[in-house]
Amino acid sequence: MMLQIRKGILDSEKTDIIFPTTLETVQTEMRGLEEFGKSYGVVRSVSGEGPAQLLTGRVKVDDLNTEAGIQNLNRLAKVIDNMSDEMLKLLSGALALERAANLNDVLRVTDSLEQYEFFPQIRTDEDLGHFLVDTSFITGKFSFPEKTRPYLDYAKIGAEQRDTLGGAYTAHGLVKRREEAPVQEEAPRAVVLTLMSLEQSDTLILPASVEQLEQAKRALEIEDFSQAVIAGIDYTVSCLGQLIPMDCISVEDANEMAHCLQSLKTDGEIMKYCAALEVEQPSTFTGALDIAIDIEDYELISDSEWEYGKQVLRRIGADDEIIDTIDGYMDFAQLGRDSMADDGVRRTEFGLVRRLSKPFSEPEVGQAML
Questions:
Q1: CB-based contacts of 220: which residues, under 8 Å, 6+ apart?
Q2: Could you tell me how many helices (H) and strands (E) the chain has, helices first?
Q3: Sheet holding 298-301, edge to edge
Q4: What was the pLDDT predicted at 246?
Q5: What stretches of 221-304 show up as alpha helix (H) in DSSP?
Q6: Cα–Cα distance between 309 and 6 in angstroms, integer?
Q7: Which of 17, 80, 82, 260 is the most buried (most CB within 10 A)?
Q8: pLDDT class for 137, splitting at 50, 70, 90?
């Protein structure tokens, strides 16, 4: 995510800051712009570039001067940088709908996107009027005889219902609050899908119940999810977006994946899954799902060769008394190094990991092996 800071709204003197970053880096950039720019003056404006354009006017200079502000921007950067185009459009519309004026407003809306829905085909009151009449005609909510429909004032119908629906038009379509925010008492969200059919789009929060899946089908006006396109997927754990491929993805498999992710209760278990993905490098979504289902076949281990050597002894039946007795007479670290090689332990960004059923195969070029 990139932000530009300027001395004034229209000032050509500017500097770019890439987030995530640190408070020290930001303050250094700001001082450089203020002290060494062509004209004298303090930084007065902040604007977003690329996907971060939706932050223009909502991030203040004061946000760049505190550790809390930088941490909030860093958190926001990780979310925005991993959003699909559809989710960015939804976020932009939700911010406009809620009249988000500052960074706290942006974070609040971003953390509750499941409460909004997006209709790319509705951009005017007339579009809304047509949509309401068509869907009402189908469901029987209102009675509009077919022969009267060419004479209806669709723009007036849309204008009268816009405030009732709680929506706002954007350049990309209508964004409105959901009539009922999704309730998932059994488990919080793990995956957010953006779905598109020929006429509709919808966001689906996973894991979802059978009834919630059926509601999504009705919203998309389809009988089967094969009739819709998965336009984007977002994970609560952002790094999964780079590790899990989209090939061969289906709504049903995505829902099962969400259930698997919910079963990973601790950060350590999530890191183990990420480490397994980094080593296994599945080529399809179903391959990544198989790893999630078999997650107990993997183990994150300590970086300490000395401790790993002791763990190997425990595996073959040695208790702590025996290990304490031979301590000083045995090279635990050497045993650990040799055993790591035999066990196929692999180093990843998320820690050392091994596969229990059989050692990992030899690494490809660029992969790390101990």
A1: 195, 196, 197, 200, 201, 202, 227, 228
A2: 14, 12
A3: 298-301, 351-355, 346-348
A4: 93
A5: 240-243, 251-263, 267-280, 285-293
A6: 57
A7: 80
A8: very low
Q: Is the pTM of this model over 0.70?
A: no
Question: Where residue 57 falls among pLDDT bands split at 50, 70, 90?
Answer: confident
The first and second tokens of residue 91, run together, are 């976020």
Which helix (H) or strand (E) segment holds residue 174: the answer is strand 173-177
Residue type, 370: L
CA-to-CA distance for 240 and 137, rounded, in angstroms? 42
- Give kind and range of the element (H or E) at residue 202: strand 201-206
Place of tokens 């957010």: 192
Q: Which amino acid is at 37?
A: G
> Residue type for 117, please?
E
| 8 A C-beta contact, residue 360 and residue 279 | yes
- Whether the Cβ atoms of residue 301 and residue 276 lie closer than 8 Å to each other: no
The answer to whether 276 and 295 are in contact (CB under 8 A) is yes
The contacts of residue 57 (CB under 8 Å, 6+ apart) are: 47, 101
Contact 188, 205 (CB under 8 A): no
